[in-house]
TrEMBL record:
Residues 5-78 form the Insertion element IS402-like domain. This is Putative transposase of IS4/5 family. Pfam families: DUF4096.
């Protein structure tokens, strides 16, 4: 599995992660593709979140988004669609 995701792989899962069209408050949302690339980097390498390389969004942002997507059942769908097994 290549990270960052290829355009083809991103197209297979992007519909699951559509951005909210309405910003409610705070900082602008991170690009979901960048966040997903970071999440996949962590889970496919069985790494700690704080070891996320600097070229990804902040680890706390990615961890919180991973929790939200996991609780919503999206991570299972994404991993199934991309045929990735969590380490």
């Amino acid at each position: 599995m290549d990270i960052p995701l290829s355009d083809e792989a991103w197209l297979r899962v992007s519909h699951l992660l559509s951005r909210d069209s309405k910003q409610r408050f705070g900082r602008p949302a991170r690009d979901p593709r960048d966040v997903l690339n970071a999440i996949l980097w962590v889970i496919t390498r069985d790494e700690k979140w704080h070891r996320l390389p600097a070229n990804f969004p902040p680890s706390q942002t990615c961890y919180i988004k991973w929790l939200q997507w996991r609780r919503a059942g999206l991570m299972t769908q994404i991993l199934d669609e991309l045929q990735i097994e969590q380490v």
